[in-house]
Design a protein that fits this description.
Elements (H helix, E strand, L loop, with lengths): L9 E5 L4 H5 L8 E5 L11 H21 L4 E5 L6 H14 L5 E5 L3 H6 L6 H4 L2 H6 L8 H4 L3 E2 L2 E2 L1 E6 L2 E6 H6 L11 H11 L6 E4 L8 H14 L5 E2 L2 E3 L3 H15 L5 H4 L4 H10 L3 E7 H7 L12 H4 E4 L1 E2 L12 E5 L1 E6 L6 H11 L2 H11 L3 E2 L2 H7 L4 H10 L3 E3 L6 H16 L4 H16 L4 E2 L2
Parallel strand pairs: 2-4, 9-12, 11-19, 15-18
Antiparallel strand pairs: 1-2, 1-3, 4-16, 5-6, 7-16, 7-17, 8-12, 8-13, 10-11, 14-15
Helix pairs in contact: 2-17, 10-20, 11-20, 11-21, 17-18, 20-21
């Protein structure tokens, strides 16, 4: 998701006095290569850890790496720290007019929109298919992760980080409810059964499944999309958005069952600060099961630096894969499913220094660079499995997601209409949580999606 991704901005001034730089397309003294992203190295600044990584490690190391090749490079850091939508608007304008950076950090969900607008082009077109294929990093990225910066089968950039969603649960509450400490449900019914047992524990919300519009995109990515994947459907397939289909109605039925039986807190889903409150309740031992990404583990519950630190996190918090509706009915006939987000970097089609930009992209996604990012910025799941295997060994949850979730995960559709469809999805869950029938909520959703994208681009049955 855009808000969760640490981005950076750097300006690289390149001397063109050397033959090596001339080979990269530099034309005269003072030519420069610019990289932009949304990060600022200041106390409390946006994505400060990554900005610091750029200043303290990437810049001197890249300068030295280029010097070893006979190329003199001067690097400057250009800080940015604005709201994600403001950043998106700025780079969209810059890419369209050619006035912006050569290398641009981009949330994966924006790639399709920018590609459709011809603001970015495939790496093969810019760098050459042979050079792109020759980069050894691809072999260490699962296909699902590579898709973070791809669209319609073409690769537009290099992914940097990703995440994955699981079911977190409180082992102490599970013990009180007579549930196992190594719980792994294999169907939606088993999740509901666990919720019914947890309901008997006083003062506990059995299941937190994000719903409604106040949770925003968290409802879509930590609720609807994993469930939809569990029916064997993705949100966009065969050129059409999922509308009022039987599989979508099955998702709404699950929501309706969970909240009508009061296994979840319907009022919390309508609270403007509902997500933060759900985090706090879990940290205090008042929520049994919660569907979230690894951010919940490393950013919310972290005992030393979390927004809602949980002292006994490492012993009390368990996790499980999200089951398909029934075994084998998930996407690609999977037993378990997930949803991932993330982003990476692309090269501006109007860059005058594409080859040098490609060198920098490779450098910043090398094992050495990404390991240093983890050391300086805290645990995170990178796009490279070789890095994850080496650098995440001490974190059981991140290792679990890297090894067992990324190979089975799915991504959000990177299309311009996604935002409108996502809002319609959120409204549909709010409708059933507040008492509307599944049929009526699904019909209203189907109508909203049709109005947003056109009847010929909506599947229904």
């Amino acid at each position: 998701m855009a808000s969760n991704w640490r981005m950076f901005a750097a300006v690289v001034s390149v001397s063109s006095l050397l033959v090596g730089v001339a080979a990269c397309g530099s034309g005269g003294d003072g030519d420069s290569l610019t990289i932009t992203a949304n990060a600022i190295n200041s106390a409390g600044g946006k994505n400060a850890a990554e900005a610091k990584w750029i200043e303290d490690w990437v810049i001197p190391k890249f300068v030295a790496d280029q010097q070893a090749k006979g190329v003199t490079v001067k690097v400057k850091f250009q800080a940015t720290g604005v709201a994600d939508e403001d950043y998106k608007s700025r780079i969209a304008k810059d890419l369209k007019t050619g006035t912006g950076a050569d290398v641009v950090s981009l949330d994966g969900i924006w790639v399709g929109e920018f590609a459709e607008g011809e603001q970015i082009k495939p790496l093969n077109d810019l760098v050459g298919a042979d050079k792109v294929k020759a980069w050894d990093g691809w072999q260490h990225m699962p296909d699902t992760v590579q898709q973070l910066t791809s669209y319609n089968g073409a690769q537009y950039g290099i992914p940097q980080e990703t995440d994955g969603r699981v079911l977190f649960f409180n082992r102490k509450l599970f013990a009180q409810a007579g549930l196992p400490a190594d719980w792994q449900p294999t169907s939606w019914d088993q999740v509901l059964e666990a919720g019914r047992k947890l309901k008997a524990v006083p003062g506990v919300t059995p299941v937190q499944l994000n719903a409604g519009t106040s949770f925003g995109e968290a409802t879509t990515t930590q609720g609807i999309l994993p469930l939809l994947a569990g029916t064997g459907s993705t949100l966009f397939e065969n050129g059409k958005w999922v509308g009022n289909t039987a599989k979508f109605r099955a998702v709404l039925d699950f929501y309706r069952t969970l909240y009508s039986e009061k296994l979840g807190d319907a009022e919390l889903q309508q609270d403007a600060k509902g997500r933060e409150k759900s985090f706090e309740k879990f940290a205090k031992g008042q929520v049994g099961i919660l569907l979230e990404s690894d951010y919940f583990w490393r950013g919310v519950l972290d005992p030393s630096a979390g927004s809602f630190p949980m002292t006994e996190r490492d012993t009390q918090v368990g996790w499980a894969k999200i089951p398909a509706a029934t075994p084998g009915t998930g996407v690609n006939h999977q037993d378990f499913v997930s949803i991932s987000g993330g982003g990476g970097r692309v090269i501006s089609p109007k860059s005058k220094h594409v080859e040098l930009a490609w060198e920098l992209l490779q450098f910043m996604n090398s094992p050495e660079a990404l390991k240093e990012l983890i050391v300086g910025g805290g645990p995170r799941i990178t796009a490279r499995q070789d890095v994850n295997a080496d650098a995440l060994g001490g974190d059981p949850l991140l290792t679990f997601i890297s090894q067992q979730i990324l190979p089975i995960t799915s991504l959000r559709p990177a299309l311009p209409e996604y935002t409108q469809v996502s809002k319609a999805l959120q409204q549909a869950t709010l409708d059933v949580v507040t008492g509307k029938s599944t049929a009526d909520a699904a019909a209203a959703y189907g109508k909203a999606v049709t109005e947003a994208v056109g009847k010929d681009k909506v599947a229904s049955d």
